[in-house]
Amino acid sequence: MQTRRAVVRRHGGVRHRLAVTGALACFVVAVYVAVVLGGGVLVGQTDSPSLWLSVVATVGVALLFAPAQAAIERMASGAGHPAAATPYDVLSRFSEAVTGGYGTGELPARMSRVLAEGTGAQWAQVWLQVSGRLTLADTWPADARADVRPPSPDADGVDSTGVGRRAEWVRHGGRSLGVLRLQERAGTPLTGVEQRLMAGLAAQAGLVLRLAALRAELEDSHAELVSRAGDLRASRDRLIAAHDAERRRLERDLHDGAQQHLVALTVNLRLAQTISGRSPGRAADLLAEQAGAGRVAIDTLTSLSRGIYPPLLRAEGLVPALRWAAATSSIPVTIDTTTTERPPTAVEAALYFCCMESVQNAAKHSGAPCVSVRLADRADRWRLSVVDEGAGFDPQAGLASGTGIGLVNMRDRLDAVGGTLTVDSRPGRGTTVTAEVPRIPERDAVGTLSPVADPAA
User: Fold this and answer.
1) In this structure, are residues 35 and 53 in contact, taking their beta carbons and an 8 Å threshold?
2) CA-to-CA distance for 171 and 105, rounded, in angstroms?
């Protein structure tokens, strides 16, 4: 419907020009007939036109032409033959559109409409440069089947994405902010005046597109922040649930393990104290047995503490802790590292537990003959990758089914230190888990590690 109205407006402009031209011709003929022929009859000279009457008629036409043209144009417009907008009119309307108090979000729509109506194009578009890429802001008419591929303007204003398309870059302060693009009608290319009109619109649109692009970038940032806030809330809830579950596990393990050993040790020590007076020998034997019970209690507590935070990780760093864990793995693990620095404590813990989770998943589910672990420190980030050539899986399907809780835990650990987790896996193609954490000078407590050879566990 909007396209049809644009066609009617353009054809109406042609009819307006024809009507005005015909009426002006009739006006000139009428003035000539009235002055020359009518005046000749009055003065009795009908055999040939009078020279001075011809001069009077010419002067009269010259004086009355402009008022007559204005009156005829008004009558033609009132009779249903509106005038086509001149380039000056289009530029004036464009200025009114961008300074008329409209919201920034409405400006691309008004700009595309003014461009389409001013040039009689089949459709017109406004593209914005947002975050380094062209993004479609609006198309006029809205029901047009316009191309949604980004434009590719040439130096002469031709858009190479299609036949009969024109595009002009919009710049402001030496910076490209967007593109105005239109599709010419079949068999009706833009005239030179319309091409200059399009270039003039692009020259005027710089500040407007800058404001519109800033608004679009703010909307993108807001959407990203909202999504990030949702992820953080979900991560916080999972961490709280994990902490509660870990606390209950520790309480259970302490109650069923170390506490029972300590209770038995306490009872036996009191028994030895009780019988020491009556049977010193038996008391001495009972005390000797408690040394072993004490060692069992210590071993139980040590085992529990290793599950919380490996002592080797705290004492010597990430690489030695990974090598120790690899030596006890049920699947051969190769450790390869090029780093000579220790990551910060929080980063070490996140990378260590992510690596252990990945190795355990590979041992349980992949069927791979071995696992490769590589740790590298780059100028801007720490990078840990765990690779196996096993059965592989679909990460999205695992998360959707709820079986990918290990991946969720790894992401939560890395989120806590500003890192990211990437899982590249497909059924039958193996799995690569990559953890990356940015290096932050204020956070990094830099130490040194002695280079070591690449062993295979």
Assistant:
1) yes
2) 19
431 within 8 A of 388, measured Cβ to Cβ: yes
Please report, for the domain that includes residue 428, its CATH number: 3.30.565.10
Residue partners of 79: CB distance under 8 A and separation at least 6 = 19
The predicted pLDDT at position 5 comes to 41
CA distance 139 to 106: 12
From 175, 204, 233, give the residue that closes a domain.
204
Q: pLDDT by residue (tens digit) across 166-191?
A: 998 888 777 888 888 999 988 888 88
All residues at 6 or more sequence positions from 409 whose CB lies less than 8 Å from its CB, including other chains: 238, 242, 357
Q: From its phi and psi, is residue 392 left (phi > 0), alpha (psi between -120 and 50) or beta?
A: left
Token pair of 56 as six digits: 């009077």
The secondary structure of 47-103 as a DSSP string is SS--HHHHHHHHHHHHHHHHHHHHHHHHHHHHTT-PPPPPHHHHHHHHHHHHHSS--
Full domain range(s) for residue 326? 311-448
Q: Are 150 and 96 found together in one domain?
A: yes
Shared domain for 127 and 232, answered yes or no, is: no
Final residue before a domain boundary, out of 24, 48, 78? 78
In this structure, the answer to whether residues 57 and 9 fall within a common structural domain is yes
Q: Which of 443, 448, 423 is nearest to 434 (CA)?
A: 423
pLDDT digits (tens, 9 = 90+) for 110-153: 778 888 877 888 899 988 887 778 888 889 888 888 888 888 88
Residue 291: both structure tokens together: 């040394």
69 and 6, same domain (yes or no): yes
Task: Look at the block and give the residue holding tokens 């059965």.
Answer: 391
Residue 2 amino acid letter: Q
At 374-387, the pLDDT tens digits run 999 888 889 999 99
Phi–psi pair at 231, nearest 5 degrees: -65, -40
pLDDT score of 252: 65
Measured CA to CA, the distance from residue 226 to residue 154 in angstroms comes to: 39
Nearest Cα residue to 448 out of 366, 352, 304, 343: 343
Burial class (CB in 10 A: 0-12, 13-18, 19+), 290: middle
Assess whether 271 and 382 both reside in one domain. Answer: no
Please name which of 291, 377, 280, 292 lies closest in space to residue 338, comparing C-alpha atoms.
Answer: 377
pLDDT at residue 95, rounded to an integer:
54
| Cα distance between residue 197 and residue 157, in whole Å | 12
Q: Using CA atoms, how far apart are residues 94 and 112, in angstroms rounded to an integer?
A: 10
Looking at the structure, tell me whether residues 315 and 443 fall in a common domain.
yes
Residues 168 and 290 in one domain: no
With a cut of 50, say whether residue 452 has pLDDT above it: no
